[in-house]
């Protein structure tokens, strides 16, 4: 039986990290971008919100000749999609990400080959409930989560040539996070080689963030679509070395941190720990 035939769809693809990060998600609309006013680790070039996509960048000569013979999938520069953004201040709690997540994608034969390279077999991802602070999923045009597998600690997601997808982040905490995202090694906001120090999108407390494509302006993006490696946006701009991986660097906001232990203490707080009369503070 082929890998495609053995795919079992799950309600959410899940990928638990040591930092308490799980991967699963839902669709949502309306994105915010971290502004420079109170930005803790801004790129030296970033002084006025995020840098808009430079139209000339899309037409830049590739650093090397694309490799048409490379098998599998990359992410193409798709059709224009309306996706307005606004700006809000965000001060990072630390220059280091609170957590990082990598999702590798490919077609059915590529996922099976990748798993074999790792000396493993792909196993369907199971839903992890109750302990995921921030969750991530790749969803199709209808909002269905793309099937995913684990193999030797990697997360492998199955896509198809021409298929549109979105990156969805869900925040299950009462704190805000900044999400710096890359596709095929390129920042999804400015299309340049990705760096965690660049600005990202904000996901509100108990909110959902949907990233529809490479940002073209304040109002629109170029949809993410799986396609041939040679036709990928990366191969046509900076090179195809990092095709096939999606990265997220997640930053906590400076201030009180709503960690799982802290939430547990709040939830288990006793309203009547001791009966008696009030005493003055020491």
Give the structure's gist in a few sentences.
This protein is mainly beta and 282 residues long. The chain has four helices and 16 strands.
Residues in helix, %: under 10%
Q: Averaged pLDDT, please? A: 75
Tell the overall outline. globular
Q: What is the end-to-end distance?
A: 71 Å
SSE string, helices as H and strands as E: HEHEEEHEEEEEEEEEEEEH
Q: What portion of residues belong to β-strands? A: 25-35%
| Low-pLDDT sequence parts | 1-29, 36-62, 126-130
Structural domain count: 1
SSE layout and pairings?
Layout lengths: L2 H4 L24 E5 L19 H4 L14 E10 L2 E5 L9 E8 L1 H10 L5 E2 L9 E6 L8 E4 L2 E5 L5 E8 L5 E7 L2 E2 L13 E3 L4 E4 L1 E3 L4 E9 L16 E8 L7 H8 L15
Describe the structure.
The chain is mainly beta and 282 residues long. The chain has one domain (3-51, 60-253). It is built from 4 helices and 16 strands. The chain has helices at residues 3-6, 55-58, 108-117, 260-267, and strands at 31-35, 73-82, 85-89, 99-106, 123-124, 134-139, 148-151, 154-158, 164-171, 177-183, 186-187, 201-203, 208-211, 213-215, 220-228, 245-252. Strands 1, 3, 4, 5, 7, 8, 10, 11, 12 and 16 form a 10-stranded mixed sheet that branches. The longest helix has 10 residues, at 108-117.
